[in-house]
Amino acid sequence: MSAEFETQKALFGAISALGLRVYDVAPQASDGASLASWPYVTIGTAVFSQFDTKEVNGFNFVARIHTRSRSASMAEAKLIQGQIYDRLHHGTLTITGYDTTLLQFESQDVTQVADGSFHGIAEYRGIIEKA
Predict the structure, then answer these.
(1) How far is CA 2 from CA 5, 22, 75, 102, in A?
(2) Residue 94 belongs to domain spanning
(3) pLDDT one-digit tens code per residue, 53-90
(4) Sign of the CA dihedral 75, 69, 84, 110?
């Protein structure tokens, strides 16, 4: 499998293990409304670039983790982001065929959406090497 697919699978597993509802793409109704159970997390885009050394082939990536909440404030989304931070920042991922060299928090934000819900985005940078 590809490094991208295996990394997304590892992120999904690590965040699901926290007891959070995690989707690749949240289910939607035909009118575009979300059918997902709230709150939930989606594993968003991960941008990969080659990161080879003389001895080892690997990848550098930045993964976006989206948090969605319909609570009365930003608190729920921020608490979920905190759980994810505690699990991922300076942690390791079990990625088939690769070893995690680096996994660190880059940035995060929570904004209110027009429908009153809250959308958080956090970015994590990782470096993985072919096992």
Answers:
(1) 5, 21, 36, 19
(2) 3-130
(3) 888 999 999 999 999 999 999 999 999 999 999 999 99
(4) negative
Judge whether residue 1 has pLDDT over 60: no
CA distance 117 to 111: 9
**HSE-up of residue 65 (Cα within 13 Å, Cβ side):** 35
Q: What is the CATH number of the domain that holds 82?
A: 3.30.2000.30
> Which value, to the nearest 10 degrees, does the dihedral of the CA atoms of residues 97, 100, 106, 110 take?
60
Q: How many residues does the chain have?
A: 131
- In the three-class reduction of DSSP (H, G, I as helix; E, B as strand; rest coil), residue 39 is classed as coil
- Please tell me the distance from the alpha carbon of residue 23 to that of residue 107, in angstroms, as a whole number: 21
Number of domain units in the chain: 1
Report the C-alpha gap between 4 and 111 in whole angstroms: 28
Can you tell me the distance from the alpha carbon of 97 to that of 36, in angstroms, rounded to the nearest whole number?
Answer: 32
